Structures are given as structure tokens and as C-alpha cells.
Amino acid sequence: MEIKIQQCNSCGSRDLRNILVRDESQKVFVQCRSCGKLVARYVLAHGGYHHAGKDFESFLRSIERDGGIESARDLPSAFENAKQQLHEEYEALKPRLLERYGDNLP
Ligand SMILES: [Zn+2]
Question: Is the pLDDT of residue 37 over 70?
Fold first, then answer.
């Protein structure tokens, strides 16, 4: 696992904003709040966006917008699996952040 906390390539600021875009695919544009320049753009994999804490209804809407391939019977367990996976991935990230950056995250 490689970890990096993103910063602006132009001014070095870490004060960034994520702009979520949905057109033919889901994208995240990262803009620097300090200088306004574009820092990065991510194109998300199919089903790759998870908003922490969202409810089942919101999960259903995102699956529908994303092409809706899950069968209705499996949706509640798909929701629980997505929540659990998100939680586990984030918990696994915390010790790696501590190892790389110490107590003071940049
Ligand atoms: Zn900047």
C-alpha cells in the first residue's frame, strides 16, 4: 500500500476541494483553494464511489445512476458489504498514515 496526501503542484498548498462530476463517467476534479489551479482529476471505476454515512436510499440511487446491474434481491447485502469494505479500508489506512506522517498529518 502506498500512501500520499495530495498537495497543489503550483503553490504547495494542501487546502484542496473535491469537485464531483458525473457525465459519461464519474470524475473528481481536485482544485487548489489557495491558488485556484487544477491539481488532479480522477476518473472513478464503475461502482467505485462511496460516500461515507450515506443511507440505503442514497446507495440505491447511486447504483441506478451507475448502470444498475445488481439484482434487487442482492441490494441490501451489497449495501452492507460496501459499507463494511469502506470501513475496513479506512481503518487499515490509519496506521499507515501514522507510520508515514506521524501524529501531525500535513
Ligand atoms: Zn495552489
Answer: yes
- Please, which residues have CB within 8 angstroms of residue 25's CB and are 6 or more apart in sequence? 43, 44
The domain ranges of the chain are 1-44, 49-106
H helical segments located in the chain: 56-65, 75-101
Q: Are 32 and 39 in contact (CB under 8 A)?
A: yes
Q: Ligand 1 centre from 50 Cα, in Å?
A: 27
User: Distance between CA atoms of 5 and 88, rounded to whole angstroms?
Assistant: 19
Looking at per-residue pLDDT, the higher value among 71 and 62 belongs to 62
Q: How many A from CA of 87 to the centre of ligand 1?
A: 31
**Residues by chain with Cβ below 5 Å of ion ligand 1:** 8, 10-11, 13, 32, 34-35
